[in-house]
Amino acid sequence: MKKPRLVVLTGAGMSAESGISTFRDSGGLWDKYPVMEVASHEGFVRNPALIHEFYNTRRRELVNARPNAGHTGLKELEQWYDVDIITQNVDDLHERAGSLKVLHLHGELMKVRSMKHPERVYTLGPDNLSTSVDTRDSYGDPVRPHIVFFQEAVPNIEPAIELVEKADVLVIIGTSMAVYPAAGLVNYARRGIPVYYIDPNPAPVPDGVTVLRTTATQGVKELIDILRP
Ligand code: OAD
C-alpha cells in the first residue's frame, strides 16, 4: 500500500538542540553579526573575505554538532510515511540523521560552487573546511559558499511548492516564518489536510494549524505518537 505523503518544513529551531544558533531569537546569529554584511548579495560584493570567514566559522561549528532526537524522529517517520523534508537550514543534520529526501531552500554549508560556472558544486571535507577569496577550483575559477544570500533567488522554491501541494500531512518545525518565500509555503497545502507547527515561541499561523508549543526534540516525539498508525 502507498504510504501517505508527509512534508516537513524545518527552520533553525530544528537544529537549536544540536547547538547550532538560530537567527532571530535573542542571542541569535543576527544579534551578533550584521545580517546584510554576512548574508546578502550586496555584502558579498562589498566584502567577500568577511563572508568566507563567517561561513568558515559556521562549518567548524557544524562538524562538531550531531543530529538531535528531532532529526532522528523524522527519519523514524519514514517507516509509515513517504517523508519529504524541505529545510531552510544550511546544515546537513537531516542527512546525517538518515533522512532520504531533503530539499535545501537556502543552500548547503558544506558546499561551495564556482563563481564562473554555478553548476559546478563541490562538497568540502572535514579537513578542508575553509575557503577564502583566493580559493580556486580545479579549473582555476574562484568559489563562493553554496548559500542563498538575501537579494538572491531561491531556486528550489518551485519544487518545494510542488511537494507541499501534494502533501497529505504538513509539519512545520522551528521557524519564525519571517523569511519569504519559505514562509508562504504553508499556503500551498491542500485544504483540510492536518498541519502541525512545533515551536516553543510560535509565529502567528493560519486557523486550523495545530500548534505544539514545545522544542523540536519533544515536539517530534509527540508528533510520532500522533502520526504513527
Ligand atoms: P529564526 O531564527 O528566524 O527562527 C527560529 C525559530 O526557532 C523561532 O521561531 C524559535 O522560537 C524557534 N526555536 C528556538 N529554539 C527551538 C527549539 N529548541 N525547538 C524548536 N524551535 C525552536 O530561523 P528561521 O525561521 O529558520 O536564511 O530563519 C529563516 C531564514 O532566515 C534562515 O534560513 C536564514 C535566516 O536569515 C539565510 O541565511 C539565507
Characterization of this structure:
The protein has two domains: 1-20 and 67-106 and 154-229, Rossmann fold, CATH 3.40.50; 21-64 and 111-147, 2-Layer Sandwich (SIR2/SIRT2 'Small Domain'), CATH 3.30.1600.10. Helix 6 (69-76) packs parallel to helix 9. The chain starts with a strand and ends with a helix. The strands form two sheets. A six-stranded parallel sheet has the order 3-2-1-7-8-9, sandwiched between helices. A three-stranded antiparallel sheet has the order 5-4-6, covered by helices on one side. Helix 7 (93-96) links the parallel strand 2 and strand 3. The radius of gyration is 18 Å and the shape is globular. It has helices at 13-16, 29-32, 35-38, 41-46, 48-63, 69-76, 93-96, 157-166, 216-227; strands spanning 5-10, 82-87, 102-104, 107-114, 121-123, 143-147, 169-173, 195-198, 210-212. It has 229 residues and is an alpha/beta fold. 30% of the residues lie in helices and 19% in strands. Bound molecules: 2'-O-acetyl adenosine-5-diphosphoribose (OAD). 2'-O-acetyl adenosine-5-diphosphoribose binds next to helix 1.
